[in-house]
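Quick note —
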Amino acid sequence: MSASALKLQVGARTLMSFPRQLRRVAWSLEQALTGAGPSLPALDAADDGYLVTSLPETVTLDAPGLRFVRQRYTRYYVDLAGGREAWLAALSGQARSGLKRKARKLAAANGGTLDVRRYRSPEEMAVFHPLARAVSVTTYQERLLGSGLPGDADALIAAAGEDRARAWLLFLGDAPIAYLWCGADRETLRYDYVGHDPTHQALSPGSVLMAEALGDLFTDRFRWFDFTEGEGQHKRGLASGGVACRDELLLRPTIANRVAVAAVGGFDAAMVVAKRWSEAPALKRFAQHVRRA
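Predicted structure written out below.
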């Protein structure tokens, strides 16, 4: 179960929210690819409904309730079965040259070599955790989103003991500047925790580390690398495929839920129209004139 909210939101600013108690049902990458996902569990009396994440656009849930799409996105992944050379060949020329350029730049700043360290066993993960935490506390993922590397290493070490984890650190001199921790779901390795020290942003440490980690995985046991929910330029640039997905709310048909869905849906539609109007050339010129005045 998870707490969530329907929000009237402009950019990062929330004008109003409607809190709801939801039962989260997450589709894995393999389920999204096959279209055969998990069944919906029974709701408790206190539940307002379901939050279903990574639901493929080709799938309609056979369940009653008010439906509300929170977001649509492509769930990107890398097909590891084809091999590293096939993956590189499928990338755009700009992406390939960008990866090489960034790696050369970072290596030059580190005395001519890339220092990427790999962690897999429980003992290695115990070494990884405090070093990665030192990076995590500097990142926007932790400071703004609350999604930094967990402070407790027990779950990460336990996953390593069951061969369900891989981790990497990128060093500049003696200090780690970027980390990546991935958990496994059967044949899929997920992009779970990632971050880099923002003081080294100009060296693109996150991109360099991600490319190095993917290079390792083509000789590992996994079939897929899952960039998980949401989009981003780095995901699009490195992925070999993607599944069109949506996050959907299925709410009990109560009066309160109907009011919330109607309010948020109407507000979102109005914001789409407002954005379209604001991009019209005449209105852009008018806005520029007002700013100059």
